[in-house]
Write a structure and sequence with these properties.
The protein has seven helices and eight strands, in the order βββαβαβαβαββααα. The protein is of the alpha/beta class and 224 residues long. The strands form three sheets. A four-stranded parallel beta sheet has the order 1-6-4-5, with helices on both faces. It has a two-stranded antiparallel sheet with strand order 2-3. Strands 7-8 form a two-stranded antiparallel sheet.
Length: 224
């Protein structure tokens, strides 16, 4: 699970732009202690519900904002003595996700690094269409596939519905605290994959099914 800060960092920092002659471009990366603390506490809560291991990913050997991230993480870590905390530079984390993905459980990082690492990690599953996501707000949360709306597939009945279905599982688990219901959804998805009821993106040369067919199979499994 990757916990990515979504509202700060390089994507939202100001000033941002180009010089009048167009030959120089600039972006600004800004983080405050409050922003970092908020996402770290969230990551520790998630880690406590899983294997109790949290990896903080930064570039503290180069970037001032990353040094703030690491400092705040080191201050917060003692408040969660039951959680194992380790720290990785983002380039090392990117390598280890490919070489040794099972060494991770929950990762937490800033906006840009999280954007890149989650797309890299999607290769492990074989398709973006298998990955759910959640944007966790203080009062409202949004659960959706990691790939977004996928408008290119609109009306074609070819999109892999699993990411959306697993996003619903996340909603039950982390939005409503209904873990049995979430587990049932995950079980249904696993059974569909084992049975080969899959869309063309992961069919691997075998028979592929339409979006609606995969969705109906999973729905029927849950309703049994």
């Amino acid at each position: 699970m990757c916990i990515r800060e979504l509202t700060g960092g390089l994507y939202f920092g100001r000033p941002q732009g180009r010089s009048e002659d167009g030959d120089t471009a600039y972006d600004t990366c800004i983080y405050t202690r409050e922003e970092v603390e908020r996402v770290l506490h969230l990551a520790y809560r998630f880690a406590g519900q899983r294997r109790k291991k949290l990896t903080v990913v930064d570039k503290a050997n180069v970037l001032a904002t990353s040094r703030l991230w690491r400092q705040v993480a080191q201050e917060i870590a003692p408040r969660y003595p039951d959680i194992e905390t380790d720290y990785l530079f983002v380039d090392n984390a990117a390598m280890r996700i490919i070489q040794w993905p099972r060494s991770f459980d929950v990762l937490v990082t800033e906006n840009l690094f999280g954007d890149i690492l989650t797309d890299e990690a999607s290769v492990i599953t074989g398709s973006l269409g298998l990955l759910p996501s959640a944007s966790m707000g203080l009062h409202t949360s949004l659960f959706e596939p990691i790939h977004g709306s996928y408008p290119q597939a609109a009306g074609k009945d070819i999109a892999n519905p699993v990411a959306m279905i697993l996003s619903a599982a996340l909603m039950f688990e982390y939005g409503f605290n209904l873990h049995e219901e979430g587990a049932l959804i995950r079980q249904a998805v696993n059974e569909s994959l084992e049975a080969g009821i899959v869309t063309e993106d992961i069919a691997s040369g075998g028979r592929s099914y339409r979006t609606s067919e995969v969705g109906s199979w999973i729905t029927e499994y849950i309703s049994k």
